[in-house]
Amino acid sequence: MTHKLIVKRLTNILFLGFSALLVSPLAHAAQPNITSYIATNSGAQCDSNITSTQYQATYQITTTDHHSNAQQHVTLTLTRLNDRILYQHNEVSFEAWNKNGEYVRYFPAQKRSISYRRGDLLALNIDTDLDRQFHIISKHGLSQLSQGSTMTGKCLNQQQFVSRDAEQNVAVTWLPQMALPNVLTVDNRYQSIHYKLTELKAISKDLFNQRIGGYQDLDFADVGDSESDPFIAKMITQGFIQHGSSGFYNADGQMIDGGHGGHQH
Questions:
Q1: Rounded alpha-carbon distances, angstroms, from residue 89 to 57, 75, 92, 209, 232
Q2: Could you please report the per-residue DSSP string of 218-240?
Q3: How confident is the model at residue 28 (pLDDT cuts 50, 70, 90)?
Q4: Residue 144: inside a domain, yes or no?
Q5: Which residues are CB-neighbours of 123 under 8 A, at least 6 positions away?
Q6: How many distinct structural domains can be found in the chain?
Q7: How many angstroms separate the CA atoms of 39 and 247, rounded?
Q8: Where is the signal peptide (predicted)?
């Protein structure tokens, strides 16, 4: 099987987060450890305000190239409130997905945003697995793995899932109460991708709304009539808004078809 097909299969199971896995300057910052929160014998106080539909989760993502041993590090923060989830991996922009299929990209420095309706995404040949967007691994992807042991923690339980074959190995430590991975590793002969949850905390409705409030929004359908706007022109030049392409990338930062992976709009 070719490298391209292996990567495509990998991204069918795993949502890689963002285009090209850009290196974040925050990647090596010290992060709180949640080990005590999920340990069986722990003095940690469980926060009842953290639920599977309202939380902020921070992941450290490490990608290792097996040929060169080079590594890329990304800090990815997910912030969820009910049917909306925010993805942020740098200071330039962050993304919001709604379970109705709508997508918004926010640019904090400019206080501008671009909104895409479901029809806009389909017109761009972007057909996203929303289950994967909200849980990093879709229910279908998890069902393809073999379930192992279950560990009972003071606040959160953990379930082990694995899959090993000639092409790649997948190992997941799943948090069933959160419907999120605590640890996720995908390894093939070309590279390994390792997700580690480093922080999990409550997020209030007010704080969530503050994150996305006060932006001047533009519908993607109106972008073509707004290219004289310096902000829109700059975003098109820098590739944040792309016409007629899928905008989805694999773990190597190469554009792929069919909506597997993150996208750059």
A1: 12, 6, 9, 19, 22
A2: EEGGGGGG-TTSHHHHHHHHTTS
A3: very low
A4: no
A5: none
A6: 1
A7: 40
A8: 1-29
Are residues 178 and 136 in contact, defined by beta-carbon separation less than 8 angstroms?
no
Residue indicated by tokens 């993805």: 87
At position 112, the amino acid (one-letter code) is R
Closest to 175 (Cα-Cα) out of 192, 152, 198, 195:
152
- Give, in order, the Cα–Cα distances in Å from 125 to each of 99, 232, 243, 260: 18, 21, 11, 11
In a domain, 83, yes or no: yes
Is residue 95 in some structural domain? yes
Residue 245 has pLDDT above 50, yes or no: no
Q: What is the pLDDT of residues 138-153, one digit of tens each?
A: 999 999 999 999 999 8
Which structure tokens are listed for 130?
Answer: 């929303």
166 φ/ψ angles, rounded to the nearest 5 degrees: -70, -20
Close Cβ partners of 167 (under 8 Å, ≥ 6 residues apart): 1, 6, 9, 188
